[in-house]
Amino acid sequence: MKQLERMNKDERYLKHAEAVLEGSTCLRRKYGAVIVSNDEIVSTGYNGSPRGEENCCDLGYCEREALNIPKGERYELCRSVHAEQNAVISAARREMIGGTLYIVGKEVATGGYASPAPCTICRRMLVNAGIERVVGKDKDGNIIEIDIHGYR
Fold first, then answer.
1. CA angle, 33 as apex, 94 and 82 as ends, to 5°?
2. Interatomic CA distance for residues 69 and 65, integer angstroms
3. 5, 84, 95, 145: which one is catalytic?
């Protein structure tokens, strides 16, 4: 009997994160995040407006895009809660301590992978939540580990 080749855990959980990003309501970049602890999925999150508020995809425009604001700037103008933030607020801290966050982002315009590096605010939240590792796909689709424990 021929043995089937299984994908490794990082690949498997990144596939979950890539599936989760399909729920995103952002018109610029779609992100999906999965928090895993002790080889169990603890929570997931995607970027989108807070519950009960209008989404950019429903409004038909992105405020930051309309103002040509570069990635990483003027987050106060963005309607979305980040994927990492949504994953963290959907789990208890005791479940996240020592865990791994898997994150995948895609550019809406091109369908290509977007940088998986958490913003400064998300990085701080992940550290406080007890997350030990962050694994993502870089712009070429390669699996990378992102250091969140060094101050930026």
1. 95
2. 6
3. 84
3-state SS string for the chain = CCCCCCCCHHHHHHHHHHHHHHHCCCCCEEEEEEEEECCEEEEEEECECCCCCCCHHHHCCCHHHHCCCCCCCCHHHCCCECHHHHHHHCCCHHHHCCCEEEEEEEECCCCCEECCCCCHHHHHHHHHHCCCEEEEECCCCCEEEECCCCCC
pLDDT one-digit tens code per residue, 48-101: 988 988 888 888 888 888 888 887 788 888 888 999 999 999 999 999 999 999
Active site residue 84: yes
List, in sequence order, every residue forming a beta bridge with 114; answer none if it has no partner.
105
Nearest to 136 by CA among 123, 150, 121, 124: 123
Q: Has this prediction a pTM greater than 0.85?
A: yes
